Amino acid sequence: AQSVTQLDSQVPVFEEAPVELRCNYSSSVSVYLFWYVQYPNQGLQLLLKYLSGSTLVKGINGFEAEFNKSQTSFHLRKPSVHISDTAEYFCAVSDVQGAQKLVFGQGTRLTINP
Amino acid sequence: DAGVIQSPRHEVTEMGQEVTLRCKPISGHNSLFWYRQTMMRGLELLIYFNNNVPIDDSGMPEDRFSAKMPNASFSTLKIQPSEPRDSAVYFCASSRTSGSRETQYFGPGTRLLVL
To answer: Which residue from A51, A99, A107 is facing B101, i.e. has the nearest CB?
Structure first.
């Protein structure tokens, strides 16, 4: 079984500042890694995913994430945030060889202050 | 292209009543998922279907919950009888194929309040 830990439940930052949202996972098997974003009163939308290859993954809206196998981490970063980035961010994993099931972290609420 | 469509968007009901949530996946997608989101438990997978067949329903809380997918373009999640602890946001998602690398596309959710 897999589990995902998002270390920060809330992250407040100022507009145009950099941000990092942390995600660690636990799994006995190889996993695929995902970051989803949920804007207020909406469903989840994929930001980016790591399947294989380069450990630095670029996604939509200027976000990127780096897969670190030794640290079992997949932290999300953006060099300069905008007010419109205010949302909840979810890290998720799925078993490479197994069923099509996503296991989500508890989410991190990113608040951008002007 | 239309995304995943869910109805109703909001539902308020009284304890003991039957509740039916509906979902239309993206056309051409073969997999469909039902999730529940609460403050306490976060996002939980309830059940998923491949090619209209239920594959894993281990997340369904109890016998009061049932889900069907009679065809490739429609699914329902039914709660009978409903209880206040069922209050949550229920999301439907679909994906193109059944691979674990596939992106899931989420609907806007149904916000359920059971009084």
So the answer is: A51
More confident residue, A99 or A75: A75
In this predicted model, what pLDDT tens digit does every residue of B80-90 receive, in sequence order? 999 999 999 99
Residue A101, pLDDT score: 86
Asked if A109 has any chain B CB less than 8 Å from its own CB, the reply is no
Q: What is the mean pLDDT of residues A14-30?
A: 95
- Three-state secondary structure along chain A? CCEEECCCCEEEEECCCCEEECCEEECCCCEEEEEEEECCCCCEEEEEEECCCCCEEECHHHCEEEEECCCCEEEEEECCCCHHHCEEEEEEEEECCCCCCCEECCCEEEEEEC
Task: Tell me if residue B99 falls in helix, strand or coil.
Answer: coil
